[in-house]
Amino acid sequence: MSNGSGNSSSNNVPDLQAIVDRVVAKASKGEQIEAYVSRGGETAVRVYEGEVEHFVSAQSEGIGIRVIKDGRTGFAYAGTLDADAIAEVLADARDNVAFGTPDEYAGLAELDGVAQIPQKFWDDELAAYATADKISLTKELEKLTLGMDSRVRVEESNYDDGWGEVAVATTTGIRESGRGNSCYVSVSTLADDGDETQTGFSFSVGDSPKEFNLPKAAREAADRATRLLGAVKPPSKRTTVVLDPYVTSQFLGVLSSTLNGENVSKGRSFFADKLGEKVADPRITLVDDPTNPLAYTATDIDGEGLAARRNVLIENGVLKMFVQSSYSARRTGTKSTGNATRGGFAGTPGVGCLAMQLQPGTQSQEELIKGVDDGVWIQMVQGLHSGVNPISGDFSTGASGMMIRNGAVAEPVREFTIASTLQRMLLDIVAIGGDIDWLPSRAVGLTLVIRDVTMSGQ
Amino acid sequence: MSISTQENLVEADVIAKVLAKGRATGAEFSEIYIEDKRSTSAGLDDGKVEQVTSGRDRGAGIRVVAGETTGFAHTSDLSERGLLVAAEAAAAAARQGDGGVHKIALQPLLRHPVNTVRIAPNEVPKASKVALLNRANAAARSIDGAIVQVSAAYGDSYKRILVANSDGVFSADDQVRTLFRVSVVATGDAGMQTGYDSLGHTIGFEVFDENDVEEMAIRAAKQAIVKLQARPAPSGSLPVVIKQGSGGVLFHEACGHGLEADLVGKGASVYRGKMGELVASPLVTLIDDGTMSGEWGAIGIDDEGHPSQRNVLIENGILTDYMWDFLRARKENRRQSGNGRRQSYADLPMVRMTNTFVTNGTEDPDDIVRATEHGVYVAKLGGGSVDTASGDFVFGMVEAYLIENGEITEPLRESNLIGNGPQVLKDIDLLGNDFAMGNPGMCGKDGQGVPVGDGQPTLRVKAMTIGGTAA
After folding, report:
1. Which of B126, B392, B467 is nearest residue A387 as measured by Cβ atoms?
2. Which chain B residues are within 8 Å of A53, Cβ to Cβ?
3. Chain B contact present for A275, CB below 8 A
4. For the whole prediction, is pTM greater than 0.95?
5. What sequence ranges are listed for the domain Metalloprotease TldD/E N-terminal (chain B) (predicted)?
6. What is the mean pLDDT of each run of 10 residues along chain A (458 residues)?
7. Is some CB atom of chain B closer than 8 A to the CB atom of A398?
8. Which among A404, A418, A405 has a CA at the least distance from the CA of A457?
C-alpha cells in the first residue's frame, strides 16, 4: 500500500480476506489465480483566504484478478466489490489469458519463509480526528504562512488524510490483509515584488495531526518563495551543485529504475553488466529498506504479499544487487527480494525500490555549503520526467536556487538547467549530509554535493 | 453499434432527487457527474504479449457549492440510495445548516457526440488488438541489429458520461479513445539510446486504417539508431527551430497553463491582468479547441456538462481570453468556455486545456532552417512543466539536431530546454505554413491527468537556453 500505510498480520481485514479467498477457491486445475482487493477513503480540505475552498470526503474500492495458465497471463479489474462485478472480472481475466504469449517465467509469488517485521500502520487518533479540527488546522497553516513575510500570499493550504485496507490471496498459498492510515498538510506560496512573482511550497507529515510541525512548514514555504525574489539567470559554466534534501530525494527516485531487476534483464539499465563494480563514489551506500518504520513508504509486505526486507544495493560505491519481484527473479535465476510494487487494484505487480535510503554523512547543510568555493545550491528542479533518461543516463533538468561563493550563500538564480549523466553524477558525489529528512516519497532526503555539473543559463 | 446506446446511466427522476438533496442544506448549486467506463489494454515487451487487461470504472461524483465553499463526495454505488447518501455527504461538506426544499427542473437530455466512431473498439476481437503489438515489435526489430528491446502498448476506452446540475443542465456524451505507442532501445559503442512514437484519437479501431503501426515502430527505431551517434547537446542560449506537430507542448507550458482562469484568479499566473495586451509575437494566434473532430483532446461536452468550444486565447499576439470552468466563470459573472474537466468521477473538475495549438504562419519550413546560422533543430519534444506564477518552464527534446550554416547536421543527446513563457512567446520570430497536430498527451494538474492534444507549424524561437553539457 502507498502513502505510508501497509499490512500487518495483527491488523487483518476479515471481510476483504474472505472476498479474495472466495475468488481464489474458484481456480480450476492448471490455473493460477491471484485476487487483490482494496478499499479506502480520503478527506481533503483546501483553504483559501480564510475560507474552505473545497472539502472532499470520499470512499472507493475495487478488485483486480490475475489468471495464469500454461504460461499465459490475463488480467481484469473493476472499481467495485459488487458480487456480480467480481464474477465478471474473473470471467474477463480468464478470457484474456488466451491472448498472452506463453512465458516460461510467468507465475505468482511462492512463499519464501522470510518473516515479516511488524510495524504500526494504523493510528487510532488520526481515525478519530474531528472534521472541524482538520479545517481549523488548515486555516492555521494558511495564517501562519501569511504571517511569515508581508510579501507572501498563499495559493492554497491543504489537509489530506486517507485510510486503506487491502487483501491478497493466491493459489500458491499467499494470504495477507491489512490496513493503514496517514495524513499530511501542505501549503503553496507566492511571493511578489513589483511585477515579479516567485513560488514556494512545503508540507508536514505525521502518523497523526499532532505530529505536524506547522510553524516549520510555514517558514519553509515562505522562505522558498521570498528567497528567489530578484533571481537572475546565471552564466553557463561547469560547477558544483549542492542538492537540497527534497531534490536529492527526487534524484534517488530517478535511479530506482536502473536498479530494477526486470529492467536489467530486459536490457533497459546501464547497470546491467556492472554487478560487483565501482559505480559510485566510495562514500555511497544505498539501501532499500521498507522495514525502517521512519520511512514514509515503510511496509511489511510487497505488492505480491511477500515480506518486505532490507536490501543493500550499493555498498561503499560498489554495485551489490538489483531489486526483484518473483517474475524478474525467475527471469534472472535469482530470488525475489520482496520488491514487487503495485499501483492499486487496477494494475499487476511491477518491480521497484520501496524505500530508498542513502547512508548519511555527518555534516549539516550549512557546513557543506561552507566547503564549496564556487557552486550553486539547488532548491528546486523542474522537468525530471522530460529531461532525464534512465536508460541512456542523460540528465538535464530546469533548476532554481542560490549561488555559492567562497562558502557563502550569494544571489538567487533561476531559469537555468543543470546537466550531466546519471553514471557520472554517482561518481562525482563529493559529500553527503547528515541532515536526513523522511519526506513523503519513496526516497529519503538529505543534502548531496556533486561536482562537475554543467549549469546552462545565459 | 453497441456504442451509441441511448439508455441513461441513471434515470432523470432519480437525478432530480439527488440534485435537490444536494441543495437541502441551503447550497445554491448541486451537480452530479456519472461515469461508466470500460477499457481494454494490451502490452508487449521483450517479444512477448505480457497480458491483456480489461477494466471497468463506474461511479458518480456529487458537487455542492455554497458561497465560496465546494463540498464533494463520490460513490461507486449508482443505486438511488447510494447516490442520495453521497449527495447528503457533499451537502454536509459544503455547509452546515438548513435551506429548505428545492425542486430541480432538468432540461431535456442533450447528447453531444464529438465525432462519429466507425469501428467501436469493444466490438473488435482482442486478437486483432494483440496482432498490432506483434507487428510493431517485428517491424522495429527488422530495422537494425542494434535494436535490442521493444515495448508496445495498445489501449482503448469507451466512457459514457452524464452530467446534470441544479441550474437545469442535463447532458450526456459517449467518449471513445484509442491509443497506440511503441518504445525501443538501441545499443551502440556509446551506450544505449531510446526511440518513441505514439498516436491517440477519439475515434475507434478505424484509426489503424490510416495509421500503420509498423511505420510508427520504424520511426521509433530509426530515432533510437540516429541517437546512437548523438553528441552532447550544447549548453547555453541558441536559436531553436521546432518541427511542425512536435512542439505544441511548448505553448501548453509557456502559456497554456497560465491562461487557466483558476490560476489567473488566484494571482498565480504571469498572464494575470494582461487581457488586451501584446503578450506574444504578432505572429502568434493560439487556440484551445475541444471540438476538433477526432483529436486526442476532443470532447463533446466538458465534465461539467457544457458543450466543448473553440476558444481564441491569443490573436496576433494579443491576449483575448482565458479558459474558464463553471466556478471561475460564476465568480467573474461570465460564460464558462467548455474547459471544466476531471480525471474521473472521483475528482473535482477544474480548468483544463483540450486541444491547444498555434495556427499557421507564412514561411516555408525549409527557409526557417536555412535562415538559421547556428542553432538547434528539434524534431520531437518530450514532456514539460511550468511554474505559472514566474512563467519559467521546461520541456525535453527527445530528438534534436544541430543547425550549422542553415543546415540540419549532427544528432544531439537528450536534454531539457528552459525558458520564460512571456519572453519565449515574444521571441518567436519565424512561423511556418505547415501546421500539424502532435502526439497525444496526458496533462497533469493537481494530481489529475486528462488527455490533451497540441499542435503547431514549424517555428523558430530567437533564443532559448539548451540544457546540455557541451561548451
Report:
1. B467
2. 68-70
3. no
4. no
5. 31-94
6. 40 93 97 97 94 91 97 97 95 97 96 94 95 95 98 97 96 96 96 93 93 97 96 96 97 96 96 97 98 94 97 98 98 97 95 97 97 96 91 95 97 97 97 95 96 96
7. yes
8. A418
